[in-house]
Amino acid sequence: MPDAAQSLLSGLGVTPGIMLGGEFREAGGGEVPVRNPATGATIAVVPLAGPADFALAIDGAGEAFGRWSRETGAARGEVLKRAAALLLARRSDIAQLLTLEQGKVLPQALGEVDYAASFFQWFGEEARRPTGRLQPHPVRGREYRVKAVPAGVAGLVTPWNFPLAQGAKKIAAALAAGCTAVWKPSELTPLVALALGSVLREAGLAPGVLQVLPALGPVAGEALTADPRVRVISLTGSTATGRTVLRASARHLPRLSLELGGNAPFVILPDADLDEVVPELVKLKLLCSGQVCVTANRVFVPAALEGKLVEKLCAVWRGLRVGNGLEAGTDVGPLIHAEACVRVRGLVEGAIAEGAELVAENRSHQADRGIAAGGFYTPQILRGVRDTMAIARGEIFGPVLPLLTYVDVDEAVRRANATEAGLSAYVYGRDLSLANAVADELEAGIVGVNEWRPLRAEIPFGGTKASGQGWEGGEEGLREFTELKVISAPVPSLRPPAR
Ligand code: NAD
């Protein structure tokens, strides 16, 4: 398997290293073995950036900013659209690398490549949209020009669960806006990030416009927040990391975009069609083995429907195949590493000790000796989960479906909102006026009504409450990387203003 990763990397033009000035280089922050989560095998060793590498990267991005920010939006957009096309042309290789490094099953990895490409396409188009406005001035003979200008060098930090798509969302928006960027991907999934850097270089991106620096989080956080030239920091990660970066940013006050953790409620209304709900709920829960910020973390079901729901869920659960994501027919891959399994197990055992009941589990991976050293967690369904249990209070980040019963809809909404997170929510029901009314009441940045995957490049996505601030996608995603500037100036005129 190490050979598979090596040949994918060389086919994609990647030499493991940091990408500075368009070249892959050695770095001064040590190195990290990249493991295939399905087998535990080391598939590459990647150098990590240290403080001096970040200083060089910010120097280069600062220099490149002078040129890139003065390109026309149309020219910037052309590079991004070429990157979208190249991602799709290299779809199969990038997806295999993603599965090898991250563990998600291949069809989901292919979906992630398509999703990432959609952001390059969208922001490639958005780059040429006119922004700003002329506004009347109260003094005769003058007017206001309100302009959106590129903010400067952007520091981008992304997690390991969608290492390609999270990078794409930020890079495409930053570059479309005219910023240059220093991207710190997760140290657990640097390979696919380097592959994206290589794709952008092939698309014609000038050296220095995007620097890719795999690094440890605290090293990157300190380097990016300590440098006054970094004018935007966009982080996707846990709420704890968001708080750390927010505090550290007090020094130079960059614009901050924080896409943080969730605790999504999935509200099944009394009239819901369970035959529609079950397949969508299972797809949502098992996407990336449950390691998703917008996954269904708490399923609220009317007490009268719980028995039927359990029966239908168990039937689907039993038929799943858990295993190596590269093998055809696999539904659920591993968690990112063995420690993640220990954490999820702790949450499940805690819930059972407090009275929850394990009603289904799928151990189909245990027969496969080839993955015995992988980080697999057995997909499980729990009923009788209560709001006070740790499993309902924070992100599970694993393939565990917790069922919570309710009696009336107002109660379900109140309990769904009783969390510090406010990222996503789901409502399923036949009566659309009720479903929409519930959607209006749920405190979340995005709500899917009878839809399990509402995220798209063309709409803004961001969290409320402790799930963060700022937006990715949509026209709002680009604005995260601009500053508004107002120029109050005399209007050139053939006739001088009357005095
Ligand atoms: P994490 O917060 O541990 O790490 C995220 C990134 O931040 C990594 O690159 C990490 O190295 C870096 N980091 C860690 N400490 C840092 C510091 N002090 N300064 C700067 N950077 C630092 O999160 P994770 O475990 O990689 O990812 C899972 C979390 O991300 C979950 O909470 C999940 O909900 C969240 N997430 C949110 C979204 C969203 O769009 N809101 C999307 C995906 C994941």
List the helices and strands and how they pair.
Blueprint (H helix, E strand, L loop, with lengths): L1 H10 L6 E3 L2 E3 L5 E5 L6 E6 L3 H18 L4 H17 L1 H12 L3 H21 L6 E4 L5 E9 L2 E5 L5 H15 L2 E5 L5 H13 L7 E3 L4 H10 L3 E7 L2 H10 L6 E5 L4 E5 L5 H13 L9 E7 L3 H13 L19 H16 L3 E5 L18 E4 L6 H4 L6 E7 L2 H9 L3 E2 L1 E5 L3 H10 L4 E4 L14 E2 L2 E2 L4 H6 L2 E9 L9
Parallel strand pairs: 7-8, 7-10, 8-9, 10-11, 12-13, 12-18, 13-16, 15-16, 18-19
Antiparallel strand pairs: 1-2, 3-4, 5-6, 6-22, 11-21, 14-15, 17-20
Helix pairs in contact: 1-4, 3-5, 3-6, 3-7, 4-5, 4-7, 5-6, 6-7, 10-11
Bound molecules: nicotinamide-adenine-dinucleotide.
Nicotinamide-adenine-dinucleotide (NAD) binds next to α8 and α9.
Structure description:
Helices cover 39% and strands 21% of the residues. The strands form six sheets. A seven-stranded mixed beta sheet has the order 14-15-16-13-12-18-19, with helices on both faces. It has a six-stranded mixed beta sheet with strand order 9-8-7-10-11-21, with helices on both faces. It has a three-stranded antiparallel beta sheet with strand order 5-6-22, with no helix packed on it. The chain folds into two domains: 3-260 and 463-485, Aldehyde Dehydrogenase, Chain A, domain 1 (3-Layer(aba) Sandwich), CATH 3.40.605.10; 265-449, Aldehyde Dehydrogenase, Chain A, domain 2 (3-Layer(aba) Sandwich), CATH 3.40.309.10. The longest helix has 21 residues, at 106-126. A hairpin with a 5-residue loop joins strand 5 and strand 6. The radius of gyration is 24 Å and the shape is globular. It starts with a helix and ends in a 9-residue tail after the last strand. It has 499 residues and is of the alpha/beta class. It binds nicotinamide-adenine-dinucleotide.
